[in-house]
Amino acid sequence: MPLDCRRSTIVLDSAAMFAGVELSYGLFYTTEGVLREVLDSSSRMRLEFAQASGKLVVLSPPGEHVASVKSKARELGLLKELSSTDIEVLALAEYVKKKCGTAILYTDDKLVQDVALSLGIQVRGIKYVEKSRPSRYSYRCKSCGYTGTAPGRCPRCGSTLELEVLPR
Ligand SMILES: [Zn+2]
After folding, report:
1. In angstroms, what is the span from residue 79 Cα to ligand 1's centroid?
2. Considering the entire predicted model, what is its pTM?
3. pLDDT tens, 102-149?
4. Largest Cα span, the chain
5. Residue 43 CA: distances (Å) to CA of 25, 31, 140
6. How far is the CA of 72 from the centre of ligand 1 (A)?
7. N or C: which end of the chain has fewer CB within 10 A?
8. Where, residue-wise, is CATH 3.40.50.1010 in the chain?
9. What is the CATH number of domain 10-124?
10. How far apart (Å, rounded) are the C-alpha atoms in residues 52 and 72?
11. How far apart are the CA of 151 and the centre of ligand 1, in A?
12. In this structure, are residues 107 and 126 in contact, taking their beta carbons and an 8 Å threshold?
């Protein structure tokens, strides 16, 4: 079953599956990687039933979207923090946004929310209230204490800068 923009633009990540988003209402999209992460049998049965009844559609994001999500995550200095499933589900959300003009990603993962917001994808928290804007990040040098706004090497001493999420 393909993407049906008129019925839904909602993409679910693993947390949404575990939290038991009510799958009997409407239509949701997700990826193979997310399904693989849902290992417990009660969730799995629920998901298989949802798939069989056409409420949950498993799609594989095109490679160009995987590439653009990776590039955005790298730009934000978050690429190393994301799993391949995170990238896949973000790429699917970006694909839905491109095809439908809008996309909503259900996730409680703050870093995934950040990348999604940076890509213009709406986010909804499941157990927690979602962020309305990305966190502020800084990159700190553990050796000399330098802080900057981009990942890479410390301009003072050459050490690798480490990601630090700032409180808002
Ligand atoms: Zn330094």
Report:
1. 22
2. 0.77
3. 999 999 888 999 999 999 999 988 776 666 666 667 888 989 989 887
4. 59
5. 16, 15, 41
6. 25
7. C
8. 10-124
9. 3.40.50.1010
10. 35
11. 12
12. yes
